[in-house]
């Protein structure tokens, strides 16, 4: 498969098998519910634009309200975990519409938030209360319960409302590819900043590639946010110019996961769009070309295909990617 085909596929939210780590700092092998927590969360609206909420049964948050959410179990796919948690906590069946946001505290805690829709079942009543929830109800955004367990869900509810009104990225679902670590395939883009559109000059872009002409796959760094992965790779690859560079993780193009072999394939690969620019203009720096890699394992490739170049720039400029929130 050509590089252009690979990039096109990733831009569409599709996946690609992880065959090699090009940057692999020491990392614990993820094991679900032991040293790694992958969780799901559902944002579901009814025909009145009310959002589904569940009432918590746990002693530490007894009676408070939250979105249907919970940890993935051994051997589950992300979508299976979503459907199970919604059924157990809210009493309804659901179908995911799209991944809506990824919330994270680093590679050992990642929550996949979905916009989903009800497909069957009925709300859990107080008479059906159990260890999963006390009941479920629909609530208007302006009349949410005062005793919300954590306010981190407010950004998810607002994102769901916004997406329903005007989607800013294409519907995105996890794709089924095995991975044994938490890693990121980086579409790391350098954009020139010396082009003058008034003179008909177009912005040029380059992609960072491994020595075998692949998009680099980097293991995520323990105890660091997911955005730190790209920064660490750039520092490793271009140490002498790193402080002059701005490394901006734009968002996620795709999510790859298959946990069918517990303890062996509990990892996830996030195909991530990253923009690299110089922080400020300096006379001794050429703003029209990327900084030279100081590591022989990496090189730059200029994108000359006009449609592909336009598509990449559009993703960056419009932010049409799955957002990541560090919490």
From TrEMBL:
What protein name is recorded for this chain? 8-oxo-dGDP phosphatase NUDT18-like
Record-annotated Nudix hydrolase domain positions: 35-161
Pfam families to which the protein is assigned, alphabetical? NUDIX
Lineage, top-rank taxon, reads Eukaryota
Question: Which InterPro entries did the record assign?
Answer: Nudix_hydrolase, NUDIX_hydrolase-like_dom_sf, NUDIX_hydrolase_CS, NUDIX_hydrolase_dom
List the PANTHER family.
8-OXO-DGDP PHOSPHATASE NUDT18, MUTT/NUDIX HYDROLASE
Which UniProt keywords are listed?
Answer: Hydrolase
Any single GO molecular-function term of the entry would be:
8-oxo-GDP phosphatase activity
Q: Which family does it belong to?
A: Belongs to the Nudix hydrolase family.
**Where do the coiled-coil regions begin and end?**
none
Statement: the UniProt record of this protein carries the keyword Hydrolase: yes
């Amino acid at each position: 498969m050509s590089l252009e085909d690979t990039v096109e596929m990733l831009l569409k939210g599709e996946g690609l098998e992880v065959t090699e780590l090009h940057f692999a700092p020491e990392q614990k092998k993820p094991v679900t519910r032991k040293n790694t927590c992958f969780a799901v969360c559902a944002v579901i609206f009814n025909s009145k634009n009310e959002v589904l909420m569940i009432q918590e049964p746990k002693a530490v948050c007894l009676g408070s309200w939250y979105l249907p959410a919970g940890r993935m179990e051994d051997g589950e796919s992300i979508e299976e975990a979503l459907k199970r948690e919604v059924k157990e906590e809210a009493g309804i069946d659901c179908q995911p519409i799209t991944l809506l946001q990824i919330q994270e505290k680093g590679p050992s805690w990642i929550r996949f938030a979905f916009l989903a829709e009800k497909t069957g079942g009925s709300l859990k009543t107080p008479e059906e209360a159990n260890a999963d929830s006390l009941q479920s109800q629909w609530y208007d955004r302006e009349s949410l319960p005062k005793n919300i367990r954590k306010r981190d869900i407010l950004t998810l509810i607002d994102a769901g409302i916004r997406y329903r009104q005007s989607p800013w990225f294409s519907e995105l679902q996890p794709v089924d590819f095995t991975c044994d670590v938490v890693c990121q395939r980086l579409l790391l883009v350098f954009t020139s900043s010396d082009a003058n559109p008034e003179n008909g000059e177009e912005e040029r872009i380059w992609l960072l590639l491994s020595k075998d002409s692949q998009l680099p796959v980097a293991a995520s760094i323990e105890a660091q946010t997911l955005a730190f992965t790209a920064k660490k790779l750039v520092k490793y690859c271009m140490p002498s110019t790193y402080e002059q560079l701005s490394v901006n993780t734009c968002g996620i193009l795709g999510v790859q996961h298959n946990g069918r072999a517990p303890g062996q394939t509990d990892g996830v690969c996030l195909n991530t769009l990253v923009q690299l620019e110089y922080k400020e203009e300096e006379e001794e720096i050429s703003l029209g070309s990327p900084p030279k890699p100081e590591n022989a394992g990496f090189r730059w490739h200029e994108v000359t295909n006009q449609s592909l170049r336009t598509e990449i720039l559009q993703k960056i400029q419009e932010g049409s990617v799955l957002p990541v929130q560090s919490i």
